[in-house]
Design a protein that fits this description.
This protein has 331 residues and is an alpha/beta fold. The chain has three domains: 56 residues, no CATH class; 179 residues, P-loop containing nucleotide triphosphate hydrolases (Rossmann fold); 77 residues, Helicase, Ruva Protein, domain 3 (Orthogonal Bundle), CATH 1.10.8. It is built from 16 helices and six strands. The protein has a six-stranded mixed beta sheet with strand order 1-3-4-5-2-6. Helix 9 packs parallel to helix 11. It is flat, with a radius of gyration of 23 Å. It starts with a helix and ends with a helix.
Length: 331
């Protein structure tokens, strides 16, 4: 029989909509029943939990889209909804950054437990760093690992020229955070987060920033707020203290480049021996650029009915990416 604490934890996680915690406690109950000799009951509980997980994952999209599909102003235009399947293994990051992201996921998975002690899990995250270093993928991984939707905030629909309209739309987004738990992703965040005193600033942009500062400060939803920028230097200083974590992304080092190559070339890399030589070609490129180079090499092998990719092909594609990046920087 479940203990009173387990029953309370089951009920609380159900009320909070924390499925991960609910299944975790349910499995603890099953384990306890097995331990006290109720093997048949324990097996029935595990079977029920497993089937519920499968059913839940297939119904998640339908169930969670309902609140967003209701006619609530322009919310459908403001948020682009997806359900990523990305996992932490898709990310290749510096060890310190990897540990900080794992801590965020761990705290989110123990949401109810942390809240029950009067504390808040990390859920307001700012990602800074050059393009292609894994910021957008991180938002997808957080959603995928936690089994919740990713909601991209569309700045083209959010920002208007009419006084006060953008702040009203921003309020709709923050209301959605309360109604539907998800990862709310503000990409290219400097569009609304630039210095309030910048010379080219206008009054409306300052009002938008002030509104955002106030709303993020007051937000106590169960959602994650993830903002990303390539230009942290132009963000208003008041923003940084509103986030629980500021994560800095950089270009991969040689060892990380090798990890990316091996990760992306699984099944195609049999003839490759000189990983260090290939990694040297990739220095200065971002994760995204290296991934594109590898994909191009694989596609070429597939087109020509080859089962593997050679070192030379990978190097040539990395050289192409470097040349492409150089042209873009010069313009």
């Amino acid at each position: 029989m479940a203990s009173s604490e387990q029953l309370k934890a089951l009920l609380k996680s159900h009320i909070d909509g924390d499925e991960t915690q609910f299944y975790s406690v349910a499995m603890q109950v099953a384990a306890h029943e097995a331990k006290v000799g109720h093997g048949k009951l324990a097996e029935e509980l595990r079977t029920m939990i497993d089937s519920a997980k499968i059913r839940s994952s297939s119904e998640t999209v339908k169930r969670r889209l309902i609140p967003l599909a209701q006619p609530r102003g322009e919310l459908a235009n403001l948020l682009e909804v997806s359900y990523p399947h990305n996992r932490f293994s898709d990310l290749i990051l510096a060890e310190a950054l990897e540990m900080r992201l794992k801590r965020i996921i761990r705290e989110q998975r123990n949401f109810s437990k942390i809240r029950s002690h009067g504390l808040d899990p990390r859920r307001k995250i700012l990602l800074v760093g050059p393009p292609g270093t894994g910021k957008t993928l991180t938002a997808s991984v957080l959603a995928g690992e936690l089994g919740i939707p990713l909601l991209l905030v569309r700045f083209d629909a959010l920002i208007t020229k009419y006084m006060g309209e953008t702040s009203a739309k921003l309020r709709q987004v923050f209301d959605a955070m309360r109604d539907v738990r998800g990862v709310y992703f503000f990409d290219e965040f400097d569009a609304i987060g630039s210095h309030r005193g910048m010379s080219n600033d206008v009054g409306e942009i300052r009002r938008i920033l002030n509104s955002f500062l106030q709303m993020i400060e007051q937000d106590d939803s169960n959602s994650l707020i993830v903002a990303a920028t390539n230009h942290p230097e132009i963000l208003d200083h008041a923003l940084f203290r509103r986030f629980d974590d500021v994560l800095e992304y950089g270009l991969p080092n040689p060892q990380q480049i090798i990890s990316i190559l091996k990760n992306r070339l699984v099944g195609f890399s049999k003839p490759i021996k000189d990983w260090e030589g290939i990694a040297a070609k990739g220095e200065g490129l971002s994760y995204a650029e290296i991934t594109r180079a590898v994909r191009d090499a694989i596609k070429d092998s597939i087109i020509h009915d080859r089962a593997t990719v050679t070192e030379e092909e990978v190097k040539n594609n990395l050289d192409e990416r470097e040349a492409f990046r150089g042209r873009n920087h010069n313009h």
